[in-house]
Amino acid sequence: MSQDSSKPSFLKPTTENLSQAIFIVNRHAKTAPNPKYLYKLKYQALQKLLMEGKAKKVGLHFSANPKYSQQQSDVLVVCGEYSFHLPPSKTDFDSLPHLGKLNQCVRNPKSKLSLSQAKKLLISYTGYKENSSNNPANKKSHYQKPVFKKLGESYF
Question: Which of 87, 103, 108, 147 lies in the 20 to 30 Å Cα band around 25?
């Protein structure tokens, strides 16, 4: 047992570990330079948890930050001790109750999981990997400084 505690072990995909990982990925996505991948990873994980019956759609909330200043609703999904919001499908409006405004007093528990651990766990659980060609960090390496020729020299 002393070997297991000395080196970090890979997290098992339990409902509690997955919900913590989704929470960490979601929290980092809010400030990430390229949040699309992190939000997609969150979405894929929650969809799989919903299909497996490990998460449950509870109802609809009015969105705190609606697009184009129009009223918009999000689906409230509960997974373990954590709750998340997802974009609604058309069937969600028919099948789920509307819960009104989001209660700001309800908070998710804190988690000490790192972003890299959370991403590894969700990637292994969902099988969804980041497309490296869409990563803006990779695009920055293709930048070439402009070359300035002396007056009268040809660029060709």
Answer: 103
Give the pair of three-digit tokens for residue 22: 């989704």
Tens digits of per-residue pLDDT, 113-139? 899 999 999 999 998 887 755 555 555
The whole-angstrom separation of Cα 74 and Cα 77 is 9
* Consecutive H or E run containing 111: none
Looking at residue 93, its amino acid is F
In the chain, % helix, strand, coil (3-state, to 5) comes to 45, 15, 45
Give dist(CA 147, CA 133) in Å, integer: 26
Residues 6+ apart with CB under 8 A from 139: none
* Degrees to nearest 5, angle at CA 18 with 100 and 4: 150
- Is residue 133 classed as helix, strand or coil in its secondary structure? helix
3-class DSSP state for residue 97?
coil
pLDDT at 5: 41
Query: Which amino acid is located at 60 in the chain?
Result: L
